[in-house]
Structures are given as structure tokens and as C-alpha cells.
Amino acid sequence: MSTDRLAPLRAFGRYHRLLVITLLGFASGLPLALTGQAMQAWLTQAGLSLATIGFLTLVGLPYTFKFLWAPLLDRFDLPLFGRRRGWIALSQALLALALLGLAQLDPAQQLGPFAALALLVAFLSASQDAAYDAYRTDLLPAPERALGASLNTLGYRLAMIVSGGLAFIWVDPTAGGLTWPAVYRGFAALMAGAAVVTLLLSPRLPQAERPQTDARRDLLGFAAVLAAVALGVFLVQRGLEPALKAVLAPATPLGGKWVDLLVLLLGLLLVGPLAAWAARRARYDTLLGGLRDYLAQPGAAAMLGLIVLYKLGDAFSVSLLTPFLLTGMGFSPAEVGVANKIFGLWLSIAGALLGGALMLRLGLWRALWLFAVLQAVSNLGYWGLAVGGSGTWGSLTVPAFDWGLVKLAQPTVLDGGLLAVIAFDNLCGGMGTAAFIAFLMALCQQRYSATQFALLSALSAVGRVWVGPLAGVLAESLGWPVFFIVSIGFALPGLLLLWWLRPPIERLDAPTGPVAADD
């Protein structure tokens, strides 16, 4: 009888946990577009060049380096609020302030401060993601993890619809008629509300054992890594960049943009090893322990390569999708917002659900392979759109509406080709994302799950962030049709590596694989 009396309480606890996961997933997804495609639209309307917008995609760098400070979120508690909840709420509150500051700047006149503050927004957003990933892992018992992951994806994608879809409609003169600064102030208020929700509604976690490392050494190790990165950047800016520009810039197109790209690539080759050396010398044990634990697995290095390459072609094709649709194709912000940011993201959610269902029948490797091929093929749709232009496949008229949160003041015509391309691309991308997240989860060892998930998810963001500068230069040099053909070539290395790694990936489906190491 006592068990029956406790059943409603257990059910309430389960629903409470899943509701909080959905809300925190929404808060986690909200800032991504605000340093990505929404920011690109703001910069495009401000008159910045395509190559400049391409280089400003580098403000997303914190998403690729969050594993460097994620161990500190594992190691240190915040007074009163706890380790996981405290870091999440602090990140959200600081995000509200940073977005409010960004709304006060004019990117056309204050590009340097604007880029610096956008970089801070990305840093805080990546920190929120790292803390939330760890909180979700610790909060959900094993039977709730699959449903929790689905609801997290739902919340995350809904946030992207708001910040990357509704925002486009709000700034369109025929719809909301707002300015981008006003939109960013609204999102700052949302993030402030998210911090309050996190503290008031999210369940407290039992006191968990922290990594048994020297706290002082971890802090010094992180400081040493930052110092090494700063030194590398200084050497690149003061030595390498001026030397290369003096020799190569006069002979290159686009006012030296190709030289800027070469400086960026060579700088990475310098800064990366320098930071790794600093971490070892300073004995940044929480980070190094998590990396050693992962790298001890057979084929670990090749798996890291696959994580970087799997969605590279997809990331390349969409890295400048907003400027392509707005300026290359001449679509209105409202048309882009409805077609790409709302219609497309709903199809991405449908693709993720479909991909999860297909994975039950296909298994991990076959799902990864099939969805990777579909992702590459979907880039041909943008090539066809660039070659054929708008109006080739007819159009669809969306009537005027006013739903309070979003409205269209007059009917909006949606290009049929745009809708078809967006539908296929997002459906394929959603399926690929579902398989890819399952792959990342299978690779994580539970003892260092927070650090390792931060590392793997950071590597998965490499393509999305680092291809931006190259994409901008190539788009200006080659034109949009050739650009999208090149994007298919970027998908081929991942396909080849995936084929080579078939045996170890198939073993991840076995009960003895890393995913089963749950104690």
C-alpha cells in the first residue's frame, strides 16, 4: 500500500523533471541564433560586406572551446544555489546583461565593441550549455533519459524558431516592424526570466562527489591555457599577420581576405599546441583526466576526426545561408523567417523524430551513413535555387494574421523552390542530428561525462564556426552556384572516414560498449 501511495508523488517528480528539461532546453537554444543567423541578418541590413560577415562567424568560437572551462563547472560550487543550478542561472543572468549591452551598439559604426560583446554572449551561452548538459545528465534517471533528450531537443528547436525565425518576422516592415536592437532587448528580458525559472523551478540535485583534483591547480591550469592562447594571438597579430600581408596581400583578390584566411589557419596551428602544452605544464588535472580517459578508448582519435567532419558539408552550406537568401536571392526578411526559420525548423524537429525511429531499425552505423549521404545530397537544392532563381517552382501565399506574439500585416508570398529546398534540407539535417547525438552519447564515459560531452560537442561545433571565414571568401570569389557545389565536396571526407570506422561504431551498439557503462 505504501508503494501505491507514493506513486502519484513519483509521477509528479517525473513530470516536474521533464518539464524543467524542456524549459532549460529552450533557454539553452535561445542565444545560438543571436550570435549566428539572426546576427548575420542584422549585419547584412547594416551594410557590412559578405567577407566581413563571414569572419564575424568566429564569435562562435567559445562553442568549440568550452571543454577548456567545463571542468571548472564540474569542480566548483556556487554558494546557496549549488553546482549545476548555480552555474546555469549565473550564465543566464549574465547573458541577459550582455544581450542588453549588444542592443545599445550600432555594428556599422562600432564593429569592434559589437564583435567583442557578441563573443561574450557566445562564451556565456557555451557556459550555460556545459552546465546544463551536466545537470541534465545528473538529474534524469536511466529510464527517463531518452524522453528527456527528446524534450530537450524540442525545447532547443523551439527556441531557435523564436530567436531565428520569429525575430526575422518581427523586424520585417510588413510584419512586426521592430528594429534589431529592440528584438535583442526582448531576448535579454527572456534570459533574465530564464534565470528566475532556473532558481525557482529546477529540482535540487543530491550532493555529488566532485573530481578529486587540486582546486588551486585547476584554476592555475585554466589561467595558463588562457595565457597561452593570448600569447599565440599576440604572436600571430604582431608577427605572422604583418609579414604575410606585406608579402602576399598585393597579389591576392578581395583586398587581402585570402591572406586573412591563411593567417587564421596558421594561427590555429600555433595556438592549439601552445595551449595544450600549457595545460600539461600547469597540470590542469580535471581537464587532462577527462581527456586521458576518453583517449584510452580504441580508435578514439579517429572518432574525434569523424565528429569534426560528419556535418562539415552541411555546416559549410548553411554558414552563410541568411546572406544568400536575403541578398543573393532577394527574399524578404519575412519570407526567410517563415520559410527557413519556422517552417524549416519544424521540419528539422520532424527529421530528428523520424531519424530516431529509423535508428531503431537501422542501427547506429547504417543510420549515420544514410543520413550523411542525404545531408550531402540536400546541398544540391541550394545550388538549384542559385542557378534557377526565384519563381521557378511557383509560389504559396501566406495570409495576413495577428497571433499576438507574431503577426503578418499583409499576405506574404513564399517561393515554392525555397520551400522545397528548405523542407528537404531540414528533414535530412534533423535525421543526421538525431544519429549524431546518439553517437556522441555512446562515446562518453560516465565518470567524466560532463567534461567529455563538452569536448565532443565542442568539436562538433568546429565545422559550424570555423568554415565561416572560408565560406565568405569562397562565396565572394566563386559565386553562389559554385559555392554550393564545393559544399558537397566538404561532406566527402566525413563519409570516407565513416566507412572506415564501421566496425568500431557498430560495436558501440553492443551492450558491452561505452554507452552501457552506467553505474
From TrEMBL:
InterPro entries to which the protein is assigned, alphabetical: AmpG_permease/AT-1, MFS, MFS_dom, MFS_trans_sf
Membrane topology (UniProt): Multi-pass membrane protein
Keyword Aminoacyl-tRNA synthetase recorded: no
UniProt keyword Iron present: no
GO cellular component, one term: membrane
Cross-referenced PANTHER family: MAJOR FACILITATOR SUPERFAMILY DOMAIN-CONTAINING PROTEIN 3, SOLUTE CARRIER FAMILY 33 ACETYL-COA TRANSPORTER -RELATED
Lineage: Bacteria, Pseudomonadati, Pseudomonadota, Betaproteobacteria, Burkholderiales
Name of the featured protein: MFS transporter
Primary location group: membrane
Gene Ontology molecular function: any one: transmembrane transporter activity
Pfam families: MFS_1 (PF07690)
